[in-house]
Give the backbone structure.
Amino acid sequence: MRGNEKQRASDTALRRGAAKVFFVFVVSAQFYFVVAAYDNPHKHFGYQPFSQSSTWESSIVRVLHSGERIDIRDGWEGYRWSELVRERGLDAPWVRRSAPSGVESTLDFFQQALNWVATHTPRDRETRYFEAHVRYIKNRGAPQTVVMRSVERPAAP
Amino acid sequence: MSSGAQPAPCSLWSAWNDLFERTGSTRAIAVLRILVGPIVIVHLWPFLEQAQSGLYFADAFFVPFFDWWPVLNVGVYRALIWLAIASSVAMSLGLGTRLACAYTFFFVSFNVLSNQLFFHHNRAFLMSILFGLALIPCGATLSIDAWLAARRGRPLADAMPLWRLYLVRCLACTPYLASGASKLIDPAWWGGVVMYDRLLRFRHIAEQKGVPSELIDIIAVPEFHAVFWKFVVLTELFIGIGYWFGRTRVGAMYMALGFHVLIEITSRVSVFSYLGICATLIWVVPQTRDRIVYLRLDTPGGRRWVRVIQALDWLARFDIRPQQAPASANEKRKKIEWVVDDRSGRIEGAAARRVLLSRLPIFMPLVAPWLLLSEHRRSRRASTDAPLADTTARISQR
């Protein structure tokens, strides 16, 4: 009888200990995300909404292996940018839009989108890389311009 | 059920240990569970529409949180969304509550983590709330599970380990604290530049929504934003901190209601506002029937109020008991029709009516300022009237 009670007390203590560890782990993880968000362009789980009033726009060209530069706005080889990249206002970058999650977040996703399109358009055998001229205004600051390039594609055999 | 929302006066360490021994009522969390079901459906519906129309996210540019995260076949994905919608309904009804809450949390999280482009802070908040509903056994009241168990003669115990509630409270106050703190240290936000600029850029949208141009002209000046958004940032911080203290909790809840209504009107935040308002339930004291209301059951007015309280006391805070008919004409003249009694004291008349109405969720937004004002007056009076001090402290603890 006494053995059973001892066992139960031990189980309860173990459960409480596990609950305490779990509690501390979850709160620490949330705290980590909040702090890490200051160094993360997307602020994942860091709760920093509406951080900017920034706007951005960009042109995109295909730079061919021949050196020619062609605007992609009207599509190419049966592809359309807006069908390949649909989310987060990246679908029509040539239209000036807001970047409410922060211009850093938008530019990071835009760079990834350029790389993704470069590696997921197998019918296109001419393009060497995609190049984007991005113009943005962070909050009410001065206009800035950056040039982004996708990964290079190998020349077609 | 050992319960207790107010920790006994003791050291921090013993309060911490105490948290893992005590239990509380799940009633308010059950109400939250009912309300969150439709919110999840509103959240999932655009994903379902996209999948139904053949626009599967994985067919276009997407960024998984983890490289090893599985990408499902579109048919499986669509089936899992339907299952999540069904589980949201089951969660609200309280049918297979634990499983329904667990699956709903699982799928909503799985979906958000499938693609970084899906991530928004309102969705992270939804994940936190669903995590809480999966963690807290909230099917013991207001559920089909409870009804079935009662029919079988084995009613479910309305008790949850209190640490789980406090863990969810930690997560629920984080959006306010993190958002407020980040804006507090950002000069562009604290100075009002961000929102002033947004208003200038998007005033045409506000006008399309019906906001009068004259009003926009008045607020479209930097001075207004330099002051107003400081107030908003401090409001966020007050909500995140004020929730934790009995004296400020009602004020924090009331500020949260106003805050969420304001951002729902001025921004596109998906389900965040609805969720934020519903999440105030997390801060309700986890006790039921802890206040006794004495009402005259021998009068039509008294009986009417009994029906009103029974219908609107969703959080089961009140235990209604008959009040004795007045024995003498002198007593009748006092017209004390309302008496609220709890462990810490007895309140009568108008003050009792205010406390009662403020604890009926539907009246809370209307009565809370009135209650806060009267408590403030009581506090001021208490500073000059020592015998009243105990009563004031008791009222503010509620």
User: Anything to note?
Assistant: Chain B has three domains: 26-158, 178-235+251-270, 291-397.
